[in-house]
Amino acid sequence: MSTASRPGPHLATERLPGDAAGIARAIELLRDGRLVAIPTETVYGLAVRADDDAALARLFAAKGRPADNPLIVHVASLSALDEVAAEVTPLARTLLQHFSPGPLTIVLRARDDVLRSVTGGLDTVAVRVPAHPVALAVLDGLGLPLAAPSANRSSRPSPTTAAHVLADLDGAIAAVLDAGPSTGGLESTVVDARGSAPIVLRDGGISRERIAAALGLATLASTTDAGASPGTRHHHYAPSMPLHVAQPGAGATMATALLAGAHPDATVALVRVAPRDAAPRVVDRVRLLADVADAEELATRLFSLLREAEDADARAIVVEAVAETGVGRAVMDRLTRAAAGSRASDDVRGSGA
Ligand code: TXA
Ligand code: MG
To answer: Where are the alpha helices (DSSP H) in 186-282?
Structure first.
């Protein structure tokens, strides 16, 4: 289980149902500058008024998030874009016409009155319109833009259920609005739309292929420059045990090899993709968490499976790779970062402390 330390004063975190009463209470708390985790179609977000510096400081503290990692501003509709963006480019309009509401975040020049605690000190702002009815009801009722990073402690896997949120942030936030599991499972695609051609800053729920097709382009540019895409310079998505990425079909072999010489009680969790053999030839101590059909299913379930491996007290988790096309590119991005963040060079022979 997560043993993330809980910063700040201990709050009684309210569990709110995703109905009219829960939404009304969430709006009331948010208006007061409190932190409320809300469901979106990608992952749960930790929402706060984007116009309240003190509230934003509490959000960075609750997450343990570095101040130079900017937040996505969530708005109820495209008409609210002008409230944060200094210039909405034709490219931004085209992208949003195709993919909004939905898991696409666009980066534009920020208006001067957008708080620099939201933008991580940059003069750009990231905006998205979520496609979740409960998120939209909150935004509509509140009538203010909400800054909302994923509702996990910094560096942890993003939460796709209210229980995941509470595992990381119970006692550190005012409330969680529970509308069941997020269906998307991976965060939004972040695209710099300031110029005439899009630049992908983070792969996500909308694939590069779909964006290119919508714009009539053959390929899309991307950047891994940490200045342009600040989130990429920090460790991310890491479960509490080492994560290893296996070649397709080789997960069981890798998991078994990791157990060689390990403590007799150690188990290794395994996630296979499109397995050929129905019954895996694995030893007792390899715990098959899931067989997923393809990259799409892995995208939906990945973060949840990482947390399941923690709950199962596995000493390591092995996940089979998928092809880096379509949503598979975002899946491999998260897997690679999670592996790096989990110190995958450690192995299960260690103390596990
Ligand atoms: O699906 C999502 O995007 C979820 C839900 C809650 O909306 N949110 C989310 O937020 O994933 P977060 O904070 O975990 O990730 C935001 C990403 C980071 O990589 C951050 O660096 C990038 O967006 N970002 C935010 N503002 C930016 C800006 N002005 N320029 C470049 N990148 C920016
Ligand atoms: Mg995040």
So the answer is: 208-215, 251-259
